[in-house]
User: Fold this.
Amino acid sequence: MLIHRHDAEADEAAWRAFVTAQGFGHLVAAGRDRTVPVVVPTQYLLDGGQVWLHLAAANPILGALAENATAVLSVAGDWAYIRAAWKAVGEEDPRLGIPTTYYAAVQLTGPVAVLDDPDEVAAVLRRQLGALEPGADVADPTVHGPKLRAIRALRLDIEEVRAKKKYGGNVDDAHRAAIAERLVERGGPGDAAALTHVRRR
Assistant:
């Protein structure tokens, strides 16, 4: 992922809040000598310096992780298309604007431990349920018995964080204000989230 200096997100609290709020990303494992990496869309839980998730035991990413335990959890969201004309203010010609997309993205890299013991799998499921369904009346995962053997729990230990917030950090306040106004007017999917980031910049 290309990260220009003006797009870098150095605030740990900010990128953590974004990753936690998204809750869904892509786990990517290169394995060894593969033509392409294995990419798995997945729910996850960020907890301190670790990411927790669970997958079916038949998931192909487990083979790639057995070859090479390092993986990347890629999370992207809060995106909005910025029309070409929106990037013109004052006497600037709106026909000369260059369209772009505003978005946030975080990549968390580190070794992944695969847990297959049913008690360990149940513990990870409890952890996820506690965060995703706090207070819900759900059965303890251990009641599923043999079904737990069809699941693998994964723990990614974060060793590297690459975080990007592309929301007009390369333009002046006047241009960001113009785009913010148009995001408010359009009010489409993703516009409210993008607007928050634009104003924060």
In short: The domain at 5-118+151-200 is CATH 2.30.110.10 (Pnp Oxidase; Chain A). The first strand starts at residue 24 and ends at 29.
